[in-house]
Amino acid sequence: MQSIPLSQPDITDRERLAVAKVLETTQLALGPRITAFEQALADRAGRKHGVAVNSGTSALHLIVRGLGLGEGDEVITTPFSFIASTNCLLFERVRPVFVDVDPRTGNIDPSLIEAAVTERTAGLLVVDVFGQSADWDAVMPVAERHGLKVIEDSCEALGGAWKGRPLGSFGDAGCFAFYPNKQITTGEGGVVVTDSDELAAVCRSMSNQGRGTTPDGWLQHVRLGYNYRISDISAALGTAQMERLDEILAARAGAAGLYNERLGDLVGRFGIELPAVVDGVTMSWFVYVIRLAEGSTADQRDKVIAHLRSKGIGCSNYFAPIHLQPFYREQFGYAEGDFPVTESLGARGIALPFFNKLSPTQADRVVAVLTEALGA
Ligand SMILES: *Cc1c(COP(=O)(O)O)cnc(C)c1O
User: Ligand 1 within 6 A of 155 CB?
Assistant: First the structure.
């Protein structure tokens, strides 16, 4: 029985050659491949600057800190996300204030933002969930009305767009991530994208031990910094992947299409929900997450997942709501029922195997086994 992984990077000879070429040089770090990778990312996001780092989490942290958010500030965000989009606030003692999400997309429900604003609200951290744009037309006016900094967590959405405008281009800064399950990979990696010269310079400095920019500044540390640097080896891999981004996004759209064609029947029979793409969005397909019928429980979902896995099909619940993570419950006193839409999406969501080279035969098999599981 052939097993089918949940995700899989897509590496070709272009990437292998690019990495091999770096290994023939003596500059494996702080070199020209990083600059080239940053330029490719900034261009794609329609931004002036890119600051490449060692993870998406690092990028988020640098943005929060670079924008001067800190103790006493509140930032409004959503609990239907990957843990890093809220942890980055806690790193700087910023208080996350959660609002619930749009049940169609899992993105922030803009109609809930205004009521969460207090005199301490300093920012909004908006996630483009699963590669689908948030409703930026509704989000930005609220931010502007209240003078809020805006961070776009576009880590799942490289190459996507909202009404033709690239994701990562909204707000003060955006970021992308390059773990191997993302649209492109550098092994580990991330980037800050911004139009602000100042924010870019501060993020760059903080990513490199707080060094200044003078030529003799190697041992001059002008601010608190970290080692969040990416290597030239990773950056070369990333640039080679960026050169293939359109091909990669097309392949992913094709893989989503394979599921859309095959799952329609299960919508009627079992009430499952397929990913909805709302008007104005150009998807950058990151994952393919179905939901069991409205009202299904996490137990029922876990049974379906166990069945799929027992047949060698990689799958996972996605996302596990952030406010229900043990450490968030402890620290903030969150409980079940606090964010019902997030909890419902979290309890019913199953990410199916999803990667560029998903074949029609593999999609057939996933759907056949899923049908078996749902009928059981
Ligand atoms: C992947 C991801 C990140 C960053 O993850 P890293 O593993 O640190 O690169 C941040 N936010 C979201 C929503 C993500 O999916």
Answer: yes
Rounded CA-CA distance 217/206 in Å is 14
d(CA 336, CA 89): 22
Tens digit of each residue's pLDDT (9 = 90 or more) over 81-117: 999 999 999 999 999 999 999 999 999 999 999 999 9
Ligand 1 nearest atom to the CA of residue 175, by list position: 10
Q: In the chain, where do the E strands start and end?
A: 49-53, 74-77, 95-98, 121-127, 149-153, 161-162, 165-166, 173-177, 190-194, 281-282, 288-291, 316-317, 349-352
Q: State whether the beta carbon of 175 lies less than 6 angstroms from ligand 1.
A: no
CA quadruple 19, 23, 24, 29: dihedral sign: positive
Nearest-atom index, ligand 1, CA of 179: 9
Ligand 1 binding pocket includes 85 (Cβ within 6 Å):
yes
Q: How far is the CA of 84 from the centre of ligand 1 (A)?
A: 6
Catalytic site positions = 182
Q: What is the pTM of this model?
A: 0.97
pLDDT tens, residue by residue, 41-65: 999 999 999 999 999 999 999 999 9
CA atoms of 331 and 197, how far apart (whole Å): 36
